[in-house]
UniProtKB/TrEMBL annotation:
The keyword Acetylation does not apply. Residues 39-134 form the Thiamine pyrophosphate enzyme N-terminal TPP-binding domain. Pfam families: TPP_enzyme_C (PF02775), TPP_enzyme_M (PF00205), TPP_enzyme_N (PF02776). Belongs to the TPP enzyme family. One of its GO terms (biological process) is isoleucine biosynthetic process. Its EC number is 3.7.1.22. Residues 439-573 form the Thiamine pyrophosphate enzyme TPP-binding domain. One of its GO terms (molecular function) is acetolactate synthase activity. Residues 223-356 form the Thiamine pyrophosphate enzyme central domain. This is 3D-(3,5/4)-trihydroxycyclohexane-1,2-dione hydrolase. Gene3D superfamilies: 3.40.50.970, TPP-binding domain. GO terms for cellular component: acetolactate synthase complex.
Amino acid sequence: MGRADETITLTTAQAIIRYLAAQYIEIDGVRTRVCGGGFGIFGHGNVTCLGEALYDHKDVLPLYRGQNEQGMGFAAAGYAKAHLRRRFMFCTASAGPGTANLLTSAALAHANRLPMLMLCGDAFLTRLPDPVLQQLEHFGNPTFGVNDAFKAVSRFWDRITHPAQIIQSLPAALATMLDPADCGPAFIGLPQDVQGWSYDYPVSFFDEKVHRIRRQAADADEIAEAAALLKTAKRPMIIAGGGVQYSDAVAELTSFAEAHNIPVVETIAGRANMVNDHALNIGPIGVTGSDCANTIAEEADVILAVGTRLQDFTTGSWTAFAKDARIIGLNVGRHDAAKHMSMTVVGDAKPALVELGAAASGYSAPSDWTKRSQSERVKWNDYVAENTRVGNGPASYAQAIGVVNDLCDPRDRVVAAAGGLPAEVTANWKTLDIGTVDVEFGFSCMGYEIAGGWGARIAQAQIEPDRDTIVFTGDGSYMLMNSDIYSSVLTDKKLIILVLDNGGFAVINKLQNNTGNESFNNLIADTPTATRQVSVDFEAHARAMGAEAETVEMSGLGEAFKRAKASDKTYVICAKVDPYDGWTTEGHTWWEVGTPHITENAKVRDAHVDQESTRARQRKGV
C-alpha cells in the first residue's frame, strides 16, 4: 500500500489507464481484472495521449482494434453480457464522428443495463486553437458539443477539466457500472489538452482494489407481504427475466419453483434461465412467446416477476395478463420492481428468493394448475418440432434454428438481435444449458449480431475456450454492420455466422402488410428507387474478409454446420429463406403499434379498427 503523502507524476491519460489496470473482481474464487481491456479506433482526439498510455499497458489491458465505433460498443455489450455484468470493456474513440458513432451502442447498453466504459476525445479545454477539426460549435454555448449527447444514454457522465478530477470520477464510474440497480454505460469526455496534462497523483490511488457486486437485502416487511399474497394464489406464475442470471440466481429460482410447484415462463432476456425440458419450464412469454406461456399468463391470478423490466414484448403491451391479476415485482432496481402498481420486493434475487421461499413455506400451487400448464407445454413442443422441421414448407428461419439446435454443443452461445430472428429464436430455440442464449431485444438493435458475437467470443474464450459462439443474422443486419467478421479473423476469435437472406427487411414488410399497407421500401424487390435488382454474394464478401464461407440450401445446412464446427476460424454459412411464408405463426400476444386513424385505404382502415377492437384487454393498473 502506498503512503498517503507519496505521489507519482503522470498525465491524465496515464493515470486513467494505470487505475483501470489495478481494479480487480473475484469471480468463483478467482481474482481477475474487472476491466478486460478495450476496443479502440485512434484519431487525433485520443491517439497521442491515451494511445501512449495504452501502449504501456497493452499486455494487461489488451486493446482490440475496431472497424467501426458502433461495432466496438456492441462488442463491449456482448462481452459484458457473457460475463454476467461482472466484467466490462472500455471503448475509446476520437473526438467528433468517432465518438458520435458510439451513441447507438451506448443506448443499447443503457437499455439493457450493461456496463461499458467510454473514454472519448473532446475539444481543447483552453479553446486556444478553436474551432478545431471535427468540433461541433454551438454559438451561444461554447461548452456544448457532441459529447453532451451521451448524457441521454449514459448512467454516468463526466468531462475531465482538470487531471485531479479523475480521483473522484473513475471510482464513481466503476461504482455505477458494477451496481446491480444502476448498472449501465459510463461516459468520460477527455479534452485533448487535458489528456496530456500532468499531475502529482497519490500513489495509493493506484493500489490494487478488489471489487464485489453488492447484494442488496430485501426489506423484511416486503418479503412478508409478498409471501402472504403468494399464499392466496390459486393460479400462480413466475416470470423469469435476465436479471435472474445477472444475480446468479438460477439455482435459487429453480429451487423456489420446485418447492412451491409454480410454473415458470421466460422473458426474451431470461430465455436461458431454465433448460428446455425442465418440468416447470412453460416456455417464453409475450409477443415473441409461446401458446403455452401466454395461455397460463391470461389466467394467472398472482404473478411473481423476477429480474425483468416488463417490456412490452413480455407483457403483450399489457394485454397478456388478466386485469385483476396481482403482480409481485422482485427486482434489485426500484424502478423496475414498482412497474404497473406491482407489490414491490426491492432486493437481489439470489437471497430474496430464498427469503421469500421460507416466508411462503408450506404453500404449493394447486396440482391441477401446474399439470394443466405442463400439458400446454407439451402441445407447444409438438408445434415447435414441426415448425422447425426442414421440408415443412419453404425454407425458414425456424428450420435453420432447428438444424443448429440439434447439432450444437449444449454450452455453445447463441446470439441474435433485431428483425425477425429474435422472435424466431425466442419461440423455437430449445435451451440446452443455462445462460447460453443472447437475444438482444432490449434495444432491438440491427448490427449487434456479429459485433456482439465477437465481444461474446472474446469473453467465452476466457471462460469456455472449447465452445462456439453462433450468430444468427438476417441479410439486412449483415448489410448494416459486418466488418467484425474481419475483426474476429484478425483476433482469432472464431464465430459461426448464419446469414439467412430473405431479400431485405422482411419482418417489417410483414408488419407493414399485417396493418393493411402495401409492401413498400422494405424488401429490395419492393423498393421503387431500386432501378435494378442485384443480389449480394454474402459468401464472397465474407471470404474477402478472411472467413471461410459457403452457400447452401436448407437441406444442406446440417452438413455445412458440421464443417463450420470443425473449422478453426470464423465460418459464414449463407442460405435463402422465404420472406413471406415460414414465419412462426403461433405464440403471439397482442402488440400495440401506431396505426392511422384516418386513411383512404380500406385495408389500412380495417386493420386499424381490428387493432383498436382488442385494446379493451389492455391492463391500466390493478
